[in-house]
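Expect sequence, tokenised fold; for instance:
***
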Amino acid sequence: MEPFFYFGMMSFLMSVLVSCDPVPEGVVHMDCHERYFMIAVDRSFAGDEARFEAVDRTGVYAITKSYAASCGYSIAVLPSSSYLVLRASYFSCHTANQDDQVFTFNFNLLARRDGAEAVYALNKTCLPLLPWCPREVTCEVNYMEVSVRSEITCAAGTRKDDWNTLATAHSSSTSDWQVMFQTDVEPMAPMSLSDAREKGYVFELTDSRLIFRTPYGQPHSTISMVNGIPVEVVHATLFSRQSWFVIMVDLLAVCSIHEGTFEDGHVVFETPEALYPGSDATRLFVGLNTELLEPSVFAIEEDIVMMNGTVQIRIPVNMKGGHRKSFANDDLYEFYTFHLHLEQLFEDEEETRLRLHKMLVTPLLLHPLCTQNQTVVEDHMFTVYLGDIPDDVKLLSFQLNGHEMKWPPANTSSYTIVNVVQTNNEHGYMLKVPFDDPVVAQEFYTVHSVKYSLDINYTLRVLPENELYYHSFSVSALTDVSPPVLEAVCSETGITFRVHHRPFDFLWFLSVGSKALTSELAAQRGYTMTNDSAALQLLVPLFTQGFQYEDITLKGFLGTFELLVKERQTSAVQRSISKTCPFTSSEVIACSMDGRMTVLADLSLITPSGATPSRSNLLDVFCGPVEADNTKALFSFPLNGCSSKVELSKGDVIYENEIFYNSKHDGERVVVRCTYPLDGLHRLFSMHRFDSDSPGIGSIIHSSKQHKAAPLRATTAVKTRAPTTTRSEDVNAKLLASHGNVRYFRVLKGRKPHPDRRKGLFLQAVKQDFLYK
């Protein structure tokens, strides 16, 4: 075995032995394309410091930036993509080439994993499908490569430049291969291939091809303008003098170096239609990334323009196949990158195929986010949509009126925020916050309207760099202020009212009838009122003042209690909240607003043994119960009927009657009374109508022979007790006593008639009585 071959095999085996880590599925993609091999590695797996090594039988070679350009490799870390991409020419330095038909690639991927460097072996064999053209030119992103057939053919004619080169080659004193670079000025001095290799130029001879490769920007290259488009030209001539003749090979690389422009939402790239002098362009293929299509089926057919010897390609920024990347710097920006793959066929004496790989990048473009206030005031909730957010931008956190909120929110939160997927590789966030959430600011806009306001501050991060971008938005809503709504619940012993506090509740107050509901009133009437920071609760026990009773039967009755919501400034009633509940009791009395007393009384103490309450009666023996059972009797009668007694006392009118088992029974008795405030009566002692502002207060008094209730005098002999009456009440009482035949008398609230005007009051009463007959 040859020593050199043995050493090479050992180096290759050693490289394989250290590359023993298995490659996880899905993180590396390897594909064969016409004239190049591509590896794409997921950067989330490989990391930012990942790198490649080329492996052949002679050893392992690190692919650095300069080494890649001279040896036929290009490595791209796209800022808008999550992949690290390596492209290798079929004629790259360390590719195993079998008859220019089978190409085998071996690479090492070096990535840092768990704090240590891991080595992954990558290999692939590619077989090109298209036959090789006599001349093929590759314009890669970092180098130019020309390959020509190695068979020598005689040209039909010789140009002046060829004679100049031939003269220089003929004067050479060596038979080794040399290269001479030509420029528009004058030919340069020849140099050996080894000297050219040190300067970054590579010349290789395969079974059937001669390859020349050079990085861009070499000292021997020139920049020319062709139809206003910059192109880079490298013209190398290989020659060797053999006795009296010279072998000479002309190698010409011409590539457009147009960087692309941005116009009206399009990236525009231009290249000359015919790059080689004397050649005619025959076909054109264009693609993004790796797929090549003819213009007739290309997705942007209308954006390929060929005129005045120029090919202009316009790519919309939102076209599929491009990559976008966000960038945060006070505002949110974006830029797009496109891997343009262009292929042209030229015809002159031989066919030339030119392949161009170009990375086109837009300038930074402002990317405004879309914020929509979708609040419906009737829903009593803020609804805000933040949209048009690129996929590489995610929500990190947000604040509501300066309060840091959780993302994602807890299930117990009153607000919600959800991610909304859009169709154009963008997404958004829908935020909903109730008006009554504690973070929402409230202020009175007018007397009866409230302004709700919310300042939203989003903190977004751009991946993978985690750059922060802040977006703010403010919303407000104006709503009419409504009176409070009370909840009411029935119980066996009464009714419970509850009202939740709101910031603007001070605009109203609660009242029971004409009396404002205060802690003093509640204590006076026997209500139980509690008031904390959350709500006010009022327990109204049955039979306390303010209850109204209806549908009284022996089995039960309905009790109604009403609370009024009044405007604080005007005392106008804004809302009435009443609750009616069914109750059961052995006794109940109702004094109606239209002058009727309804009494359910327990008569078990006044009914003789063996008798029933159905034989009981009132002061008028002809006024019996409506219905009765073994112990109770139900009476319903007009206040001024059934021999009822009436008395004026301390601003009240008191009607009284008694329930007897019979008129001669001198034992236990039941006294029933209805008390009405005098200033709430509009028709007093009328034979036709009784009109009161409110129901009266009833009472049932059980008394024995030893403890009788103080009786009231008959209606025709009403006398008030002077020491406890006001001047007006005393005058009214005397007028009633003096004029017993008056059918109607109106008590004017708040007036105090002078004694000298008694005659006038009497005439007024008679006149009103006549009108109401």
